[in-house]
Amino acid sequence: MAIPKRFLRIAAAVFLAAASARAQAPHHHGEMSAFDRVMGESMDRMDKDMSIAHTGNPDRDFAAMMIPHHQGAIDMAKAELQYGTNPVLRRLAEGIIVEQQQEIELMRRELGRLPSQPRPDSH
């Protein structure tokens, strides 16, 4: 089964952004700040959890990969609230948490309704 090109572009952009963020993380003479550790752990967990066994059902696979992606955004937003001080970014983080949690709930609900087998027209 071929993965839709749009999905591959989105996934590539996500992973490139993650790699860029890691490469640009400040170095503190060999020591990471607590914020850096939390962000790194969030990214590592998200990357691991997005690596799923594909079912051949694009809808199911999309939701199964996007749930940990959204959870990663929530975890990073929580780190901003814990360590950040910029009021605009803190407000953005609060919105990310609410919106991403709602979207995770929607995707979980739809996963429960989707067949686990590929759609006949997905090839």
Rg on CA atoms, Å: 17 Å
Number of strands: 0
What is the helix tally? 4
Q: Are there runs of 5+ residues with pLDDT below 50, and where?
A: none
Summarize model confidence as the mean pLDDT: 84
Instruction: Describe the oligomeric state of these chains in a short phrase.
Output: single chain
| Structural class label | mainly alpha
What distance separates the N and C termini?
6 Å
Q: Which sequence of SSEs, written as H and E, runs from N to C?
A: HHHH
Q: How much of the polypeptide forms β-strand, as a percent range? A: under 5%
Largest sheet: none
Which term fits the overall shape? elongated
Percent helix range: over 70%
Question: Brief description of this entry?
Answer:
The protein is an all-alpha fold and 123 residues long. The protein is built from 4 helices and no strands.
General description of the model:
- This protein is mainly α and 123 residues long.
- The protein contains four helices and no strands.
- Helix 2 (34-50) runs antiparallel to helix 3 (58-83) and helix 3 (58-83) packs antiparallel against helix 4.
- The radius of gyration is 17 Å and the shape is elongated.
- The model has no long low-confidence stretch (mean pLDDT 84).
